[in-house]
Automatic annotation (TrEMBL):
Domain of life (superkingdom): Eukaryota
Keywords: Acetylation, Cytoplasm, Fatty acid metabolism, Lipid metabolism, NADP, Oxidoreductase, Phosphoprotein
Lineage of the organism: Eukaryota, Metazoa, Ecdysozoa, Arthropoda, Hexapoda
Domain Enoyl reductase (ER) span(s) in chain numbering: 18-333
Gene Ontology molecular-function annotations: 15-oxoprostaglandin 13-reductase [NAD(P)+] activity; 2-alkenal reductase [NAD(P)H] activity
Biological processes, Gene Ontology terms: prostaglandin metabolic process
Keyword Transport: no
Name this protein carries in UniProt: 15-oxoprostaglandin 13-reductase
Pfam families: ADH_N_2, ADH_zinc_N
InterPro entries: ADH-like_C, ADH_N_2, ER, MDR_fam, PTGR1
Source organism: Parnassius apollo (Apollo butterfly)
The UniProt record lists the keyword Oxidoreductase: yes
Amino acid sequence: MVKARKYVVKNYFEGVPKRDDYEIVEYELPNLQNDEILTKTEWISVDPYQRAYNSFNKIPYDQFGFQVAVVEDSKNPSYPIGTRIITHKGWCDYAILNPNEPQIPPNVIYKLPNLKDLSPSLGIGAVGMPGATAYFGLLEICKPKVGETVVVTGAAGAVGSMVGQIAKIKGCRVIGFAGSDDKVGWLEEELGFDKAINYKTADIDKALKEAAPKGIDCYFDNVGGEISSIIISQMNAKGRVAVCGSISSYNEVSSNVVKAPILQPSIVFKELTIQGFVVTSFLKHWPEAFAQLVEWIKSGKLITREYITEGFDKIYDAFIGMLAGKNFGKAIVKI
């Protein structure tokens, strides 16, 4: 019998998730049945959507999320011992899974993509859900053209940092918003953004007009709120917006409603296209994105950075740190 641990969410979050909202439960796993596999978790992902989707689940629930795991025992010939896989089993150190059962996204199981000697941890980052989010949100929804101006918020995070780099690969001018001068420096000096702006200290409207005097063609929105209204007001006719998230409001308590300037005049008179998306809608095309992303990483066109926390008991701390914007690039936990 294998003893496993998992994080169970006990409460609906009010504001920033609290340690007491979670309970670490230890339990024994049953013996394997036909077609099942026993997996040991190696890397766990912490992401904004884990906060956003809290209210959609019936409590208590096991904290979901993407992970890299290795098969330790198997009764499934397609997944022999030693196989590395990506699952959505979340914050647990061991699990029993049946890959043959129907998979309802985001609860997927698939073998780690061919990373060509890159770290397996990229399977939950640049060559995982965040990478696919950046790839499809930018290329399939914004559809940037050579020479256009692309703006991305949350630019130093897992998704935003890749959006900006992919836009540069596609020949665009890129402006990113981030929450510290260190992140601004990283975006401009290492990732090649044409301009990065610290939204906490800058006059956003003025700084954006100076950075994009000819207007904005594409906007990849990770944060929502007032900053998004300002950016959208400066878009060019026929501009495209991919709405990926709204992290600026995730930790607001229900009594503190976030307000922002209305968008309709800009949308109507500039004939803007604004589309929200969930990346699992592109699930069957993830492999082609992963192949391209690996090629860009190996060729040096795409720089990846991971913000690593170590230890199963530190997952909560990594999660809260990510929500507070402490991470450069992808926040992950090594188990």
